[in-house]
Amino acid sequence: MAVAATVAISNSFTPSIRQALTPINRFSSLSSSSSTSISFPTLQSHSFVPIISSKNPNFNLLVSSAMNIEATDKVSPSSFLDRRESGVLHFVKYQGLGNDFILVDNRDSTEPRITPEQAVRLCDRNFGIGADGVIFAMPGTNGTDYTMRIFNSDGSEPEMCGNGVRCFARFIAELENLQGKQSFTIHTGAGLIVPEIQEDGKVRVDMGEPTLKASDVPTKLPANKDDAVVHSELNVDGVTWHVTCVSMGNPHCVTFGTKESKDLQVDKLNLVEIGPKFEHHDVFPARTNTEFVQVHSHSHLKMHVWERGAGATLACGTGACATVVAAVLEGRAGRKCTVDLPGGPLEIEWREDDNHVYMTGPAEVVFYGSLSL
């Protein structure tokens, strides 16, 4: 899969991030350590920056960043993605609190335009575009407006993704040129999801009802509160953790600490070491996402996450929802909380009147690109 991408950097970056991304003035050519050689035109108004120099001679990606950042405001997904070229995939990279995705306009087909194996390569942060997953905007199913499918960075396909659905909503709004407050229905592997784009650009998502029945999460841990697993003991590599299991359409194991240490200090955790042990534990037949949570107050939680199929990420929307549900069930927090993640805060509310969980947070364009398949 040869790649030659031209990318416009979004104007949504903070000044510090823009400074970090300031391009080298001009390149006339670049040769990687392989036999591949890529030529760049010399332009006064743009500079070309190699963001990937791959060991794989069949995979090369280049970024074109406008010297005048303000000029990139004129680029929109609707105009960029309207191009139809055989063998070329146009995409937009989005991020929601640092949880980043490659968004693909797949509205003309019910089959993803790339394979899970290609998604793994594109998500690679050293030899690809770099992302936590690839999201496809597809035709609606069962009366919904759209269908969303996702390939994780390891090629697996999750049922749903909370940060991803916010990015999906903003992607659709720009594709369809929708202005102001907008709402539509999305079919996902977790069922019906309804996002609403707010006037301030944030996206509020009705994430539906949490599933608590142990066998439906699923987990093999025995139910200890009605049909649910709440503040149950789980032995992980010789350490006893207290866990609550919740499904938000995908499985979550939420923990506020171990048997020996009641108050978790999430910044001190080695997620890379402990995360996979939870994800692949034999009590989770479908594997699991794991949230490690520190309680600041009755309405303020801090969470770090190990995502099934993606590893440690900067944010997880469904994980933040599961965290608040677990905190309520364990009596640690109220139904409306701010959840701080490494990428920033999400506002989560688990309503009593309809039992639905609502998530509100940002989603922003990072850049637009094209690649040859």
UniProtKB/TrEMBL annotation:
Membrane-spanning intervals of the chain: none
Enzyme class: isomerase
Assigned keywords, A-Z: Amino-acid biosynthesis, Isomerase, Lysine biosynthesis
Organism superkingdom: Eukaryota
Pathway: Amino-acid biosynthesis; L-lysine biosynthesis via DAP pathway; DL-2,6-diaminopimelate from LL-2,6-diaminopimelate: step 1/1
Catalytic activity: (2S,6S)-2,6-diaminopimelate = meso-2,6-diaminopimelate
UniProt-listed Enzyme Commission number(s): 5.1.1.7
PROSITE patterns: DAP_EPIMERASE (PS01326)
Pfam families: DAP_epimerase
Similarity section: Belongs to the diaminopimelate epimerase family.
Protein name: diaminopimelate epimerase
Classification lineage: Eukaryota, Viridiplantae, Streptophyta, Embryophyta, Tracheophyta
